[in-house]
Amino acid sequence: MTNTEKTNQTNQLKYLLGFSLIPDIGPARFQKISECFDSIEKAWNSSELELTKIFGKKISQKIATHKNQIHLDQELEFLQIENIEMVSPEFSFQDFAGINFEYFPKRLTEIHSVPFVLFARGNLTLLSKNQLAIVGSRRPTHYGRQVLEKIAPEIVHSGLIITSGLAMGIDTLAHQTALNNHQPTIAVLGSGLGQKILRKSFNYQLGEEIIEKNGLLISEYPPNFEASKFTFPARNRIISGLSLGVLIVEAAERSGTLITARHALEQNREVLVIPGNIFSQQSAGTNNLIKQGAQPITSATDIFKALDWKINQNNSTEKSTPLTFEDEIEKLIYTKLSFEPQPLDKLISKCKLDISVISIKLSMLELKGAVKNVKGGYIRN
Fold first, then answer.
1. Which residue, 4, 42, 256, 317, has most beta carbons within 10 Å?
2. Confidence of residue 321 (pLDDT cuts 50, 70, 90)
């Protein structure tokens, strides 16, 4: 690349960055701009009168005011200092060679309200990989955690990349499972990727670990953009849009997770749902989705069939050893357990066994990895 070509690309980058910093310009308005100007430089340097012809007086005044407050070179320098890259779909501007548009995921161009820019930290090549979104409750039950412990390792070793939103609960568990299994993961944020913003997040350390372990953080918002209650629903359309399908693990009746499910349906993505306890509020939303036609999932194999996904045999996990019991007493104790914690005294009552006997058998089952002692009692592992 010659110095002139490099300068031209830098200019394109800063103009695109400039438009992303104007609150009144989202995907729809930027698309309109790209249709009305043959150059991104001309679009940025357009007069208020030219913008009025496109958007009307009120919006054009707001855009012009924000443009006058933006120092493009400083903003571009800040981006470089923060090691944040920009990825964009291809536009028809004559002077727009594209800013990493070869990395912009084709699947995302199929959705409504395509982001006109993505900000990224980490491994950009992951954007071209096949992904499965995993989302769910911010306060998962032991059952929800157990489901992920069972299913997620098989998913990450199948060749699918786990994509989620870096929120507490199921999102965190999904990302962490990928990392624990030495596989990268993608986190889509509802805020900017600047350090000043990220450090406020409870999941800052996990975000840094994702980058360190060859993963990726992305956002459609500029670096110092603060998250709000409006940015997370918008973020969810990107999570589902990037993916072949969305796996939902626990969601209450009014959970924000259901917004992701709706986006997935609108985008013609597979909606896959873990059935839940009918008495649990955390499963009311997921069980309703199944009633409405979402696919119930009870194993990783169900997911692969739904997505018509051929497992990468080189990365597939080893087949687990079937559980065997020493005697009928051990089997009885195991059958009385579930994925919800059972206090020891309740288990004694159910099994009608002496405490010394049941304690020994529980210890043996723990050694086999069949049960786990958690807060509130024992659960199946």
1. 256
2. low
